[in-house]
Here is the input.
Amino acid sequence: MRSREFISESNFGMTKQQKLIQKVLEGKTISTDEAIKLLLDLGFTKHNQHSGTSHVTYKKEKEKITLVLNMKELKRYQIKLLQDILKLKNI
Here is the structure.
């Protein structure tokens, strides 16, 4: 059996969503799928996806963010937008 010393104390006991939020707040890149899951968990809804487009907009009240679905990871500006959303929500 492996020792628990290999488990980072800062991540021990955190949920997957908390770890994902921590990655975003630290400015680390995340996948498009992870970003979509996070936005849906925060109550955002999907809008304006027309057939043939790779862009999808997620909205909640006055906040919105557009993601490009055919990209593996988010771009820096998209991470910054997610950071701003999380900070507005005091997360």
Notes: The radius of gyration is 15 Å.
